[in-house]
Amino acid sequence: MTTSREIHLKSRPAGTPTQAHFELATVELPAPSAGEVLVKNLYMSVDPYMRGRMYDRPSYVPPFQVGEVLQGGAVGEVVSSNDPGFKPGDLVNSMFGWREAYVAPGSALQKLPAIEGVPVQAFLGILGMPGLTAWSGLTQIGEPKDGDTVFVSGGAGAVGSAVAQIAKIKGCTVVATAGTDEKVAWLRSAGIDHAINYKSAPSLLGAVRDAVPKGIDVYFDNVGGEHLEVALELARPFARLVECGMIANYNATEPVEGPRNIMYIVGKSLKMQGFIVTQFAGLQTQFQAEMGGWIQQGKIRWEETIFDGIAKAPDAFIGLFSGSNTGKMLVKLA
Amino acid sequence: MTTSREIHLKSRPAGTPTQAHFELATVELPAPSAGEVLVKNLYMSVDPYMRGRMYDRPSYVPPFQVGEVLQGGAVGEVVSSNDPGFKPGDLVNSMFGWREAYVAPGSALQKLPAIEGVPVQAFLGILGMPGLTAWSGLTQIGEPKDGDTVFVSGGAGAVGSAVAQIAKIKGCTVVATAGTDEKVAWLRSAGIDHAINYKSAPSLLGAVRDAVPKGIDVYFDNVGGEHLEVALELARPFARLVECGMIANYNATEPVEGPRNIMYIVGKSLKMQGFIVTQFAGLQTQFQAEMGGWIQQGKIRWEETIFDGIAKAPDAFIGLFSGSNTGKMLVKLA
């Protein structure tokens, strides 16, 4: 019998989550039955969208249940297998995160492709869901053209840092925001044209306008709130606003003020389109080939912020909302 | 020498325009020079977008100038011509509205096609700019499919009444709002499934939700404000929000509150896209053929609200903002 520690949702947060909303539990795992596999997780992912699943309301993914283990992306290694498709040592991607180990049907797991020089946890970041989110949202909705100006909020996060670099590869001028001078320095070192610390800038609108006085053609929104207003203000006619996330609003306990300049959407013929990465799942192979190629050519860099051990998973998650990560936020489990 | 009366912009309104912002002037017209034509206007159009041209700010059309004649769509009859392309009696469409007569180069005029059973002023409404706005916005951005539910605000106006009927032709269930019981009755008589008086409904959200409990696939927005919030609330995944106008905001003197539920755009993967009808000018011929066919088959009805005489043009325009029109608002000039 193997034991695993896992994180349960203890109660539903109102506002920003705290330690009190999570509980560490130890469970015993049976041996895998026919068609099942025992997996030891190596890394688990925490992502802003998970906050939405802590509300009890209908959404594109079902809500987490109080008293039950949380779910999320994880990469792990097969320990023992009763599924002929898997053998010990295989690396797999799953949605069985927030635990150290688990038993699951092999059909619920995705075997990871081997890409030279890419560590396994990259399949939770640049080559995984956040990378696909960046690549598909930017190319399928933002439609950047050579010479366009692209504005990215949350530019040093897992999604934003990929968006900013892909836009550079596509021949765009890129302006990105982040919340610390270190993140701004990282963006500059990655070749981003204009990086702005939105917390220290006297005026976000002024700082972005100074950087790109002719306005923006594409806005990739991870943040919402004031950033979205700035994007609407500086949008050029026919600009595309890719609505990927609005982390500024996720912990709001009252209705949030909407953008006061939404009317520009008519006068400037703007397109504002939201998406959930699962709608682009069919592009996964194309994405991994293209992104894998860029990584091997040294055209894409990424950062990771790693918390150690399952007990730190709630801290890692809570840290997303104060911007304590540069790049992908991960929890190392083994 | 011919004289013409015309309307000048006397001063720029802040808030809702009043009589005091307009001035009636009489001018003398020269005989047409080579390439020019003398036209007597029969009908002129007043449209909500003209309010935007009364602000002194950059936009997709240049602002009106104080002390100068206002411009706008008009249909007229050629009186005398020095352009071989035109002869007396020809009917023409132009942007030389807000005056009884004018001299202009023939190249600035568009000769009207004759469509059996269609009066000349229809080229300012159902077969003109408002009709093209409705048809192109709905088909090119809204992309309604058979069985979809379409929500239209300003449903009894020139654009909205065309949208609602085209959506019915496309096989959709249609819910439309208007501001008087008479307009609601007209919408019902035109075969619209659900017509709601948004001024007397205790709750706009409740009324629309009761009418279409499964939610909406397309929203055609002429109004903005609360209607847009309701549309975001009731939108189904992948719904399209066609942003044609936001008349609720046009006379605002302070920044308007934005939709507080804009975050749905991410979670429901919504597309919200604004447009100006000129971008679809290339579809004019296709539009007139299709719409002309529907009119002749009796599938499309329209209403006109007609003010008499150039001196009444400001009243007609001001009336747009209190909803004093059913269907196309026109001024009869001759």
UniProtKB/TrEMBL annotation, chains A, B:
It comes from the Bacteria. InterPro entries: ADH-like_C, ADH_N_2, ER, GroES-like_sf, MDR_fam, NAD(P)-bd_dom_sf. GO terms for molecular function: oxidoreductase activity, acting on the CH-CH group of donors, NAD or NADP as acceptor. Keywords: Oxidoreductase. Residues 15-331 form the Enoyl reductase (ER) domain. Pfam families: ADH_N_2 (PF16884), ADH_zinc_N (PF00107). This is NADP-dependent oxidoreductase. It comes from Sandaracinobacter neustonicus.
